[in-house]
Specification:
By secondary structure, the protein is mainly alpha-helical. The protein has three domains: 152 residues; 82 residues, no CATH class; 47 residues, no CATH class. Strands 1-2 form a two-stranded antiparallel ribbon. Helix 10 packs antiparallel against helix 11. The chain is globular, with a radius of gyration of 22 Å. The chain starts with 9 loop residues before the first helix and ends in a 29-residue tail after the last helix.
């Protein structure tokens, strides 16, 4: 069973535009009535509809990047007009931080690679805007689409600061975040485990256990010194910051190797692993002391599992 707040996709508008254009207005009115009722009070309801979908989609793309989620088939038929994640056949979360990660074995060109998701989101919005063009002035379409990048970047930058436990404004924060990501990429470090580990440190710490996961320890130590110096500028206590970071950085994600183990057991009639994974992904920010091993990095066999639409 597929459950979502709506199954209306960008592709529905494209199909109507190309095959039943006379239905475009009534279909758009239905979407507004059911999902965007505030647009009914706008002098330009269809332009407002597009703008709200752009904003929600940009926010969603930033959230995917922040949590390390990869949607394997980002075509317009798999994009919801409500800005939620749905219809992902092959999908995955980043294990080691590799921005070019492709979770769909049939995506030979890397069109939907993890680092391409923001640009594909905008591509899909352009397709939706074209389908809505009989109802919206060109200037309003351009205004809506041009807001995409600003919304996405604003959401992402606020999110990455939150992942690092930073609240006060500092012009060096983005550089600090991207320098960490560069270290993760070059040292093949786990994305989720890294940010979760940082949520347990104190600003007085001289070293961090993460250095043991890093081949270039000198570079990590240099970054960590800059990070703790930056934390000293915050007005929160260690405990306050740690609690905020642990509510932002999940400890547990649905890693593909865990899903594979659960599938193999279920095929033999043992559904206990499915129950365990369901519990963990419903409460991914909690510690769950008896399930620590579910937060471990994948074993060698589980690091490069090929996932397809029928998986």
């Amino acid at each position: 069973m597929r459950v979502a707040d709506s199954h209306i996709r960008f592709g529905h508008f494209e199909w109507i535009f190309n095959n039943q254009p006379k239905l475009l207005k009534s279909f758009s009115d239905y979407v507004i009535q059911r999902h965007y009722p505030s647009c009914q009070h706008s002098p330009k309801p269809y332009a407002n509809l597009l703008q709200q979908i752009v904003t929600r989609t940009a926010t969603l793309m930033a959230q995917w990047q922040l949590v390390g989620f990869a949607h394997g088939v980002m075509n317009t038929d798999n994009f919801s007009i409500t800005g939620c994640t749905f219809d992902y056949g092959p999908y995955g979360f980043l294990d080691a931080y590799q921005p070019s990660f492709i979770c769909n074995h049939s995506d030979n060109t890397g069109r939907y690679a993890w680092n391409q998701q923001p640009s594909i989101g905008l591509w899909n919005l352009n397709a939706l805007a074209y389908a809505l063009s009989p109802l919206i002035d060109k200037e309003d379409i351009m205004t809506a689409l041009q807001s995409y990048e600003a919304t996405l970047l604003d959401t992402y930058y606020k999110g990455i600061k939150a992942k690092l436990g930073l609240i006060e404004n500092n012009e060096q924060d983005n550089a600090l975040a991207f320098d960490l990501l560069d270290i993760l990429m070059k040292n093949n470090m786990d994305y989720t485990r890294t940010f979760r580990a940082l949520s347990h440190i104190n600003q007085e710490d001289i070293q961090c256990s993460l250095r043991d996961d890093c081949l270039d320890r000198a570079k990590f130590d240099d970054w960590f010194k800059r990070y703790t110096q930056r934390l000293a500028q915050e007005k929160t206590t260690n405990l306050q910051r740690q609690q905020q970071m642990q509510a932002t950085n999940p400890k547990y994600i649905l890693r593909n190797y865990l899903a594979q183990i659960a599938i193999e057991k279920a095929e033999k009639g043992d559904f206990s692993e499915i129950d365990t994974l369901l519990m963990l992904v419903q409460n991914p920010y909690d510690e769950h002391p008896n399930y620590e091993h579910y937060a471990n990095i994948p074993p060698d066999w589980g690091q490069h599992l090929e996932i397809s639409c029928s998986s």
